[in-house]
Amino acid sequence: MRNVYRRPPVHRKFYQLNQRIEASELRVIDAQNKQVGVMSRQEALQLGYDKQMDLVLIAATAKPPVAKLIDFSKFLYQEAKKEKAARKGIKKSVTKDIQISLFIGKADLERLINKGKEFLHEGNQLRVNLMLRGREMGKKPMALVLVARVLGQLGDINIVKEPRVEGRVIRAVVAKKKGTIKPVEPIKSVEIS
């Protein structure tokens, strides 16, 4: 038997419209957002039928419930457009990684710092990882100094998570300071002592 991929269910908002409205009395609003008044369900349905519009329940908990006369397909289209615009404006903050080693070369360190500046300029968080291998475990103070030097080269940053030793890895998480819009400037050289 073949596995069939199924999309996860899309949760759509359910609207009570026309004959599915159960309330006996409704406060009706027309398409121009003007109140028509309080009327029975049958009168409201007849009004919608005369204007060739749908009667949609928009506030079921109000006393009496509020229904609006609208073109339902156009309403759904506008709601979908609003949701899409709302999702478009939201930027997810991503955490990007750069991996350095204790005895990294000068040019490699410059390249990684420049890449880290680019990540921060894009609005992402940056995780700086320094992996200690073998005998490097005895040089933790030297490794912490190197991580601090890298963080100092990144410019205006907020430290989200201080550099600390987690097993064989020294890890720090940083983000761009709010309000800094300075473009990324590549560094010329890094002093490694």
Average pLDDT taken over every residue = 84
CATH top level class name of the largest domain: Alpha Beta
Largest sheet: 4 strands, mixed
What is the helix content?
Answer: 25-40%
In DSSP terms (H or I, runs of 4 or more residues), the helix count works out at 4
> Judging from the principal axes of the Cα atoms, what is the shape?
rod-shaped
**How big a fraction of the residues is strand?**
25-35%
User: Could you tell me how far the N terminus lies from the C terminus, measured between alpha carbons in angstroms?
Assistant: 63 Å
Strand line-up in the sheet with most strands: 2-1-4-3
What would you say the CATH architecture of the largest domain is? 2-Layer Sandwich
| Strand element count | 8
Tell me the structural class.
alpha/beta
H and E string: EEHEEHEHEHEE
CATH homologous superfamily identity of the largest domain? Translation initiation factor 3 (IF-3), C-terminal domain
Subcellular location: Cytoplasm
Subunit structure: Monomer.
Protein name: Translation initiation factor IF-3
Domain Translation initiation factor 3 N-terminal: 18-86
